[in-house]
């Protein structure tokens, strides 16, 4: 049952060198810098997004993800979900409005996988970059690099997938779109959505909690994904795998790393979801084909390179 969580709002990513990271996310991926704050964080957005930012970069000693946030329909929904989280037994931290520039108050909690998540309802809206909302052109003519269109989802590694799914289903109203199951009935991967997308957040079973696998950004066409591959080679960016197709979600994809070792994905296409759809199930022994449909075998780096 939908609870008023609309979509992914933003992700805060730790980077080792801020200027290198800005060059990667702006010049290569095509995000737009929108602000900086007195903590030294840099705010970025993709061009089709209406909110002020969807990516926050923070310089730190170790790479990885600080938190991922989801936007709610209203402040009233945010209040309700805060109470439901507490009633469910989840420890909740309130983060004051303005701690992130242009963002209202946030409710932070930790999932059983060890990852920090946030809910918020209010954020400054700057509109679609370069085109606006009144008689908009098709696209801005000054976009850079891969011309990423939106921050789409994260894939996270950690334990306790069943408890995490129950939390996202029962309190936040997410649906299970796709899963990978072992012969003894253990779910080792789960793809959850709060919308019609193939997934807004995904988890893979891993003994170490709180690990960040990748942040993903949407492109318009398969040709754009191939062009992203060209740009990765032109800039000597570290590549993981692709261009290829997923079996899970059927998206067309390429994976690569930012200068700090955080993995990025850009992709196009993919399945859609309605609440009356049954989850798609993959057998664990078909995981190679599920993740890399063309090669049908897993890239060891894809499984082990985490931040």
UniProtKB/TrEMBL annotation:
It comes from the Bacteria. Its EC number is 1.13.11.2. Residues 7-122, 150-269 form the VOC domain. GO terms for molecular function: catechol 2,3-dioxygenase activity; ferrous iron binding. The keyword Iron applies. It catalyses: catechol + O2 = (2Z,4E)-2-hydroxy-6-oxohexa-2,4-dienoate + H(+). Keywords: Aromatic hydrocarbons catabolism, Dioxygenase, Iron, Metal-binding, Oxidoreductase, Repeat. Its cofactor is Fe(2+). It holds the Pfam family Glyoxalase. The keyword Mitochondrion does not apply. It is an enzyme of class 1 (oxidoreductase). NCBIfam families: catechol_2_3. Belongs to the extradiol ring-cleavage dioxygenase family. Homotetramer. This is Metapyrocatechase. It comes from Marinobacterium stanieri.
């Amino acid at each position: 049952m939908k609870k008023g969580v609309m979509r992914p709002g933003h992700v805060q990513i730790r980077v080792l060198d801020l200027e290198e990271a800005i060059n990667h996310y702006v010049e290569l991926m095509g995000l737009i810098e929108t602000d900086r704050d007195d903590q030294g964080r840099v705010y970025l957005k993709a061009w089709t997004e209406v909110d002020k930012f969807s990516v926050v970069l923070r310089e730190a000693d170790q790479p990885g993800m600080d938190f991922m946030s989801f936007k709610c329909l209203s402040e009233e929904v945010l209040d309700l979900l805060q109470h439901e989280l507490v009633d469910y037994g989840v420890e909740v931290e309130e983060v004051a409005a303005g701690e992130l520039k242009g963002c209202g108050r946030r409710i932070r909690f930790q999932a059983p996988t060890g990852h920090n998540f946030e809910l918020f309802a209010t954020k400054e809206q700057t509109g679609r970059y370069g085109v606006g909302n009144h008689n908009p052109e098709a696209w801005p003519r000054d976009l850079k690099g891969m011309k990423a269109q939106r921050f789409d989802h994260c894939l996270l590694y950690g334990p306790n997938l069943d408890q995490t799914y129950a939390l996202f289903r029962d309190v936040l109203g997410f649906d299970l779109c796709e899963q990978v199951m072992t012969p003894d009935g253990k779910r080792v991967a789960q793809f959850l959505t709060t919308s019609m997308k193939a997934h807004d957040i995904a988890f893979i079973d891993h003994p170490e909690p709180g690990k960040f696998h990748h942040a993903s950004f949407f492109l318009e066409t398969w040709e754009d994904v191939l062009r992203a591959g060209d740009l990765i080679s032109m800039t000597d960016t570290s590549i993981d795998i692709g261009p290829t197709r997923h079996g899970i979600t059927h998206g067309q994809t390429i994976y690569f790393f930012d200068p700090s070792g955080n993995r990025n994905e850009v992709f196009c296409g993919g399945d859609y979801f309605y609440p009356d759809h049954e989850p798609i199930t993959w057998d664990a022994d078909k995981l190679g084909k599920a993740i890399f449909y063309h090669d049908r075998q897993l890239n060891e780096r894809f499984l082990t390179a985490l931040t």
